[in-house]
Design goal:
This protein is of the alpha+beta class and 298 residues long. Helix content is 40%, strand content 11%. The longest helix is centred in the middle third of the chain and has 21 residues.
Length: 298
C-alpha cells in the first residue's frame, strides 16, 4: 500500500492565486485569514500601567484561587502534553507541585486581582493543521490554527472555567437547546432534537420550515465587548469580567503539526451564541437551526 501524501502549508497559494515566493508569504497569508487584523510587533513587551487592586478585588481572587483548586487544575493535565514556548510541560508541574504551589497561588491571585496576564504567558506557538477530508489544500482556510500556550495560563483558565461552570451556570444556565462543546451533548444530539421535532410536525400533517446558519470564524469574530456583556448579564464576579484570558495582543511562533484545545474559550463563545438562540432552537457544534410551523417553532 502506498503511503498517504503529507500535507503541509507549502501547498498554500496566495489570495490572488500566485505561488508564494517564500515561507514568510505563506505565513502572512495564513495569519491574515485566521487572525484578521493582526500585525507584526517589533517588541513583545508592551508598556503597561496597573492600578492598585481594591480589597474587593483581592477577595474575589482569593475566592477563585485556593490550594485545592490549583492542585486539582494542574493534576488534570496529561503529563506529557505539548508545551508552549516556555517549555514547561505538565509532568514538571506535577513533580514539583509541593514546592511551587504557594508561589503559584500568589501569582494566580495577583493575575485576577490586577486583571493582567504576564506577557510570557501570552506568547503562543501556533500550529497550522490541515483539515481532514479536503481535496484541495491550496487555500488558507483548508488549515486550522492551534495555539500552544503556557500550561500556567491554562491552569489559570481552568480555575476561571470551574468558577463559571460550578457557580455562574448553576444559577444562569445555558439554554437547553445549546449543544456545542458540552458533556453529553454533540452534533448528534442536536440533530436528534431537530429530527424529532420534524417528525412530530409531519405526524400532525403540518408544515415544517427550517433555517440553518453556518457561523464562519466563530472564535475569531467574538468581540471582547460581547464576552464582557454576556458575563455581566450572568452576574459574574467583576474581576472575572475584566480579566482577559485570551488577550487582544498575542504573540506567535509557528509550528506546523501540533494540536491543543481551549475549554474556557469554548465556554465563553457558547455564552455569546446562547443569547441569540430562540427558546426552541436546536444548535449543533458549528450550526444553529430554527424554524416555524403554523405559529410554532422547530
Amino acid at each position: 500500500m502506498g503511503k498517504e501524501k503529507t500535507v503541509t502549508i507549502d501547498l498554500v497559494l496566495l489570495p490572488n492565486g500566485d505561488q508564494p515566493k517564500n515561507e514568510n508569504e505563506i505565513l502572512q497569508s495564513l495569519f491574515e485569514v485566521h487572525f484578521p487584523g493582526c500585525s507584526l510587533l517589533t517588541s513583545c513587551r508592551p508598556s503597561i500601567s496597573l492600578n492598585q487592586p481594591s480589597e474587593e478585588a483581592w477577595e474575589q481572587a482569593n475566592k477563585l484561587v485556593s490550594e485545592d483548586r490549583v492542585m486539582w487544575a494542574i493534576c488534570l493535565f496529561a503529563p506529557y502534553k505539548a508545551a508552549g514556548l516556555d517549555g514547561i510541560f505538565p509532568a514538571l508541574l506535577h513533580m514539583g507541585l509541593e514546592t511551587i504551589i504557594e508561589p503559584l497561588i500568589r501569582i494566580f491571585r495577583a493575575c485576577i486581582a490586577l486583571g493582567y496576564v504576564p506577557t510570557t504567558w501570552r506568547t503562543s506557538r501556533v500550529a497550522f493543521v490541515p483539515k481532514p477530508g479536503r481535496s484541495d489544500y491550496s487555500q488558507a482556510k483548508a488549515f486550522r490554527p492551534i495555539s500552544l500556550t503556557s500550561f500556567l495560563l491554562k491552569t489559570l483558565e481552568r480555575l476561571i472555567d470551574r468558577y463559571i461552570r460550578d457557580s455562574v451556570l448553576l444559577v444562569h444556565p445555558l439554554q437547553k437547546n445549546q449543544h456545542a462543546c458540552q458533556a453529553g451533548k454533540s452534533t448528534k444530539t442536536a440533530l436528534h432534537s431537530l429530527v424529532t421535532k420534524i417528525e412530530r410536525t409531519l405526524e400532525r400533517q403540518e408544515y415544517a420550515l427550517g433555517v440553518f446558519l453556518d457561523i464562519e470564524g466563530t472564535f475569531d469574530n467574538a468581540f471582547i465587548q460581547s464576552l464582557q456583556s454576556v458575563l455581566h448579564s450572568k452576574v459574574v464576579l467583576d474581576r472575572v469580567r475584566h480579566f482577559r484570558p485570551i488577550p487582544i495582543h498575542r504573540f506567535f511562533a509557528v509550528n506546523r503539526y501540533r494540536s491543543d484545545t481551549d475549554t474556557l474559550q469554548e465556554r465563553l463563545w457558547r455564552s455569546v451564541t446562547d443569547r441569540s438562540k430562540a427558546p426552541d432552537a436546536a444548535a449543533a457544534t458549528n450550526n444553529s437551526g430554527g424554524g416555524q410551523r403554523g405559529g410554532g417553532s422547530l
